[in-house]
Every structure is written in C-alpha cells, then in structure tokens.
TrEMBL record:
This is TIGR00255 family protein. It comes from the Bacteria. Residues 176-292 form the Endoribonuclease YicC-like C-terminal domain. Pfam families: YicC-like_C, YicC-like_N. It comes from Gracilibacillus kekensis. One of its GO terms (molecular function) is RNA endonuclease activity.
Amino acid sequence: MLSMTGYGREDVQQEDLDISVEIKTINHRYLDITLHLPKALLHIEDQLKRIIQKKMKRGKITVSIYTFGQQINQKQLQTDWDLAEQYIDQLNQLKSTYQLSGDITMELLGKFPDIFYIKEHEETDSIIEKYITSALQKAVEKANQMRLNEGAELKKDLTERSKKIQNKIKQLGERRNIVIIEYQERILERINKYLENTSIYDESRLYQEIALLAEKGDISEELTRLHSHIKQFHHIIEESQPIGRKLDFIVQEINRELNTIGSKSNDTWISEQIVYLKSEAEKMKEQIQNLE
C-alpha cells in the first residue's frame, strides 16, 4: 500500500558537473506530472516522464532538475552579422541622403544591443543524460520508500477502524433480534389499546399488519451487505496494486448502508451506534484520499 505523499532527492557530482533532482508528490485523483527542467533537457522530457510513470500510478508529482557546470550550462556571445550589415547599410544611406558627417564606429554599433546576443547550450550529450535519468530513478525510489512507509501507517489505521466497524455491526445484528420483538410488542400494545372498546377484531389480519410494520424497521439486509463490504475491504487492502479508488468506493457503499439503517431504526441504542459508525467511516474516507 502506497501513500500519495512523498519526497525524494538525489545529487550527482561528476568532475565539472553537479546535478540535483528533487521530486515531491501529493494526493491527486489522477497521475499529474510536472517537470521543471533546464532548456538543455527539454528534448528528454518524455523519457523522464516515462521513468516516473513506471513507478507511480496516481498523485500530483512535481520534479525539479537543477544542473551546474560548464558541460551543460555553456553560454556563448554571438553576433548577428546579417543584422549588423543592415545597420551599417542603413546608416550609410542616412549619411548619403542627408549629407551627414561622421564615421560608423564600434562605439556607435555597440549602442544597438540586438546585434549581440547570448546563446545557451541547448543539448546535452548522452553521458550527461545518463547521469540525469539515473538520478531521477533514485529520487523516485526514495520518494516511493517514503510513500511506502506512510502507506504502512495508513494501512494499520484503516485496518483498526474497519475491525471496529465489523465488531459494531455484529453488535447491531445481536440487537436487531431484540428490537424486532420489542417493536412488535409496542405495536400490539397500541393496537390492543385502540381496539379495547370495539367488538370488531380480526386476529389474523392484526398479526399480518404487525409483521408488515416490523419488516419496515428490519435492518437485516443492510447488515448483510455491510458484512460483505467489510470483507471486501479487508481483501482489497492486502492487494499490491493501487487500491485507493477501490477502497473509496467500498467506504461510500458502507456509508450508504449506514444511512439506510439510520433512517429505518427506531431504537435509541442503534441510532447512537450509527452516529459512531458514520464518524469512523468518514475518518477512513479521509485517510483513503491519500492512498495511491
């Protein structure tokens, strides 16, 4: 089980080259990768994303790669000769047209900054790319180790809460039988009180109506489904593949059954337990949001 929250960093030092790769991950519904790269690495962006996609399936992932050293951050001062020639030609035409005096000097041309520009090294050689991809792989491994550690804590918490819910559901099942009898007795008492001054009495019809009313408050089907959901939860939580979405769906179904029981119940104790169970289920849902 992996959390979606993690951090990893890997630094590489080779002669006149320093590389630093930093990866941060937080929870997200899908896999969302953002890379911050030097211009010289843009051509391998897809390759770097594939490295991440092999190890991470969900989460908002931000990767920053920093490079230092002459091997990759080379800059050269360049002259735009064509533009310089146009400047000189236009200046000569101005002199001729308006009969101006003066020479076209370096000082004059230096006032036109667009003639000179700085060109950055736009590509990296294969060895440097190898260093960078290796550093990224190690940073991803470190982030995943953190995600794995946090995932273990989340699994422990979710397992404990699911067992509490399971035990409480068993208690609800035990209480259900008592509630049905008490409910039937209350209905019978009210009907007898209503009929005590009348001579019209159909006993078979009376018990049929009692059974129908009691069935409306019966929660046996909901309890059966809750047991099934908890069983599925315990099975899924042991899977090695990403399980966050599956568990989120299961907890939604658990909440649905709890809401139904709460609306059906006319027993104070059961109503109190449903409030507790919904609180535990909501805490589980919050934790699951951080799972891959």
